[in-house]
Here is the input.
Amino acid sequence: MDKAKIKKGGLSDTNLLLLITIVVFFLMYALAVAFLGQGFLKPQTFFNILNENAALIILSCGMSLVMITGGIDISVGTLTALVCMSCAVLLDFKGGNVTTAVFLALGIGIAYGIVQGFLIAYLNIQPFIVSLAGLFFAKGMTTIVNATQFNVENEEFKALKAIRVYVPGMGSINKKGIYVPAYVEPGVIIALVVVILLFVILKWTKLGRGFYAIGGNQQSASMLGINVKRTKFCAYLMCSVLAGIGGFVYFMHVGSGSPSHAAGAEMNAIASSIIGGTMLTGGVGNIVGTFFGVLSLSTIKNIVSSMGLDESWWTNITVAAMICVFLLVQSLVLRRKAKLNKK
Amino acid sequence: MEKEPILKLRGICKYFPGVRALQDVDFTLRRGEIHALMGENGAGKSTLIKVLTGVYVKDAGEVHIEGHEGSVNIHSPQDAQNLGISTVYQEISLCPNLTVAENMFIGREKSPITNWAKMNKRAGEMLSALDIPASPTMQLGSCSIAIQQMVAIARAVDMECKVLILDEPTSSLDEQEVEKLFKLMRDLREKGVGIIFVTHFLDQVYEVCDRITVLRDGGLVGEYVIEDLPRVELVSKMLGKELDDMAEIKSSESDEEAEAKGDIILEAKGLSSSEGIKPFDFHIRAGEVNGFTGLLGSGRSECVRAIFGADRVTSGTVSVNGKQVKIKKPIDAMKAGIGYLPEDRKRDGIVSELSVRENIILALQVMKGFFKPFSRAKAEAFADEYIKLLEIKTASSDTPIGQLSGGNQQKVILARWLLTNPSYLILDEPTRGIDIGTKIEIQKMALQLAKEGKSVTFISSEIDEMLRTCSRLIVMRDRKVVGELTGSDLTQGKIMSTIAGGDNK
Here is the structure.
């Protein structure tokens, strides 16, 4: 065979979808700057998007993991509410401190992950069903822990919540002519660490590649010598643990516990993953894409509200349209690529 | 000079609900040999392979592998890999969303960290050593099926394996690629690897293999050195017909004078279909019964499906009564007076929720058009007539066909086609899975139709049946027509030697 006939590697489906996501995000942001004025040019506007969505970024990362294996976990939203409420109640006790609250959040995540992962991976129950049960359970537990919203008055926690990390070299001059440096909340740092860590795991570890293999073809993966059950279990465990971490980040941001916290966050996480190029069918996806997926989702929401269309149904319809457009673009591009490959 | 065994299977049994897939099978693989595992579909080859690779767990028996004391247990594909058994499956079992290099290495790296640079480099070396035109960084799904299969082979070969199992690896490869694979197999044999080779292609067996083990109906027929087993004998062992018996059976009912009398009803020239049939010519005369024969998978059904338009025809012409017709869909064939009783009754034939009556009038209704339904009385008259004529055992013509026995279902389908009064009827395995009495009735029916001046093509796995009914046999091998037998050539021995082909007297 002549070497000339060998096609170069080219972009994999995963990287192609990532590229689309990033390009669309920047286009959208540029349009927002052009039509909605300078507000979007202020660094703090961008960083506020991060501040608002640090928890969602973490939840979406976990969601992407299980979606890459071809599964789903719809319990992460109510699990976030459960973590918020549990931590809030703990901090309200005498002697409750932030360290124990962090461990409580992680503990809830780990316990959830073990149970759901076991049911899904080892007993082979549909992930949708298992996490649906998980969703209701967390919802119920949250109300049992405390039925109403209440704010945390713990001093140590209030200090933690007030921490601002200033971004060097970024800032803007306010109306009074005073320079205001741009800042992010600690949760954003945690979210970024999670993104980087998971990116590395997915790209360079046996475990991460196993996620992709299972999502590509579970039976083949097993025949290739991958321990499918253990790998799946790890994916759901990681997803729930990330929901625990995300729950605490959410808690730091809002500073209260409430049964209605993070309502529908699981759907936002799924939407962000899809916009970020993760396919529901499994095997394709990228954590960096998910990160940009969250940003795109919240930017479009910001755009809609700065246009004065502040009612929630406008946002919902815009998000729906956006998901449709993304899926359409993705399928068109993938189909075109498949066609080119055939030639 | 007997080489030492590397793998010994003793008394392997495997049961599935209601099926005895493997019964007390022994198999021995020696160091540095290529061992063919042969048998018809359903003989148990794939089950045996899957037991060996840990996809199924055996119900009884022992597996001994060199370097391990006693019987080893293989519970998963990982176990098999760790024991040095690597496998290339018939269907590609790789992950299409991963790169070529990953597919070659995933599941067997020692370190938990993936070193892409090293992996791509090694994969690149492997690919160029094996002359596989693919880049390591390509996504597997964007490669052709043949390349994917070669990647699977490259993966299996690269493992430090003692036993390499190739389960019909050549079905998606072209001749050059098959040659490359054979060269690779011979190289590995030199290195002392034991290779189990499963294939349907007899030529390939005689080209590379040293030894043959034949399975039939889940049982062991025997193990043979290739020089001692001529092709004819191999075929007879696979089919389960002894050569001695064959000599005795002389076609007593030879009404050869009947042939070559009528006009040519249907003629096909250079016909081929999307199912990979090599172009073939075919004709049938009025009042003739002919048949396609060959091993399973040799393309018997595909030929008639091409004539009937059930598969997409890719080349060739069909003329009916001397006039060229275009058959693109079964309805075209039906309008030209052709009927087709499909091979898989359950899938292609019956509509099991509908009543016997509705099943009988189905084909005629389709030809008439759905918007002009038959009156109830007319439909009932049709149904009753054929229920009586074919002696279909059913409670009433309103009984759902799914409740009937296999033989009676088959008669209903036969009635469906007889009702359309075709001038040419194709019966594809009409006697499979039904009782002897009904088998004979159906054979008689075919001969009866021929007497009435119609033409019938009869396909059956049972050579006896073919000899009893057909006056001309078209023999197929590897999706090609390889011979046509008539008159005194119609004996089991002759048919088998034609099926086997190659170096026979």
Chain B has 18 helices and 19 strands.
